[in-house]
Amino acid sequence: MILRVVFILALGGGLTSPLFASTERGDRLFQESGGSVGIPGVAGPAGAPGLAGAAGAQGIQGIPGIPGAPGILDFSDFFALQGTDNGSIGGGVAVNFPRVGSTSGIIVATGPSTFLLPTIGTYLVQFQVDVTAAAQLQLALNTVPLSETVVGRATGTTQIIGVSLLTTSTSNSILEVINPPTNIALTIPANDGGTHPISAHLVIIRIQ
């Protein structure tokens, strides 16, 4: 009888042994006893995106453009060095501008005094040429002198400057700067005002 009680007591005491502790307690006891930590598990899926932040303040409104304002579509600058490229220019004869300055490559020279306007449109044309004594210059389009473009001066040896807007009606039109027909020959000086050759320029810009 006494042996049975002892056996029961021993069995009852075993029910509270650490061997029957919870998993959490078992893991803690395992770590405290010097065991290594296992490999971490695979990360779970990403959480849902957070709410979008508030919109920033509206920027300042830009300055409106000018309605119908023209722009630069093509351009070319042709020039001459006087004393080398020009001399005496008879009536109806064109002035040479055989050298090419800045250009977009569309408006090109077809000769020393003829210039191609390939696209139908409106062109801003400006020229400047030094001449001696009284003289006139004007533009010719497709060999037709344009009376509205004649500019000149009565005396002196300063530059003659012309500015015009031309609207072409056919593609590949040819532009020239000429001494108007029936006018006397004009002389272009080589180096007025100093020892360096004077430049003459023809600037053509397509704006529409």
CATH class of the domain at 74-206: Mainly Beta
CATH architecture label name of the domain at 74-206: Sandwich
How does the major sheet shape up? 6 strands, antiparallel
Pick out the low-confidence regions: 2-21
Give the proportion of residues in helices.
Answer: 10-25%
Taken as a percent bin, the fraction of beta residues is 25-35%
Number of helices: 2
Structural class: mainly beta
Tally the beta strands: 13
Shape: elongated
CATH topology of the domain at 74-206: Jelly Rolls
- Rg to the nearest angstrom? 47 Å
* Elements, N to C (H/E): HHEEEEEEEEEEEEE
Taking the alpha carbons of the first and last residues, their distance comes to 123 Å
The oligomerization state is single chain
User: What does the average pLDDT come to?
Assistant: 83
Topology:
Layout: H1 2-14, H2 23-32, E1 74-81, E2 88-89, E3 99-103, E4 108-109, E5 115-117, E6 122-130, E7 135-141, E8 144-145, E9 151-153, E10 159-167, E11 173-178, E12 186-187, E13 199-206
Describe the structure.
- Residues 2-21 have low confidence and may be disordered.
- The protein has a domain at 74-206: Jelly Rolls (Sandwich), CATH 2.60.120.
- It is mostly beta strands and 208 residues long.
- The chain contains 2 helices and 13 strands, in the order H-H-E-E-E-E-E-E-E-E-E-E-E-E-E.
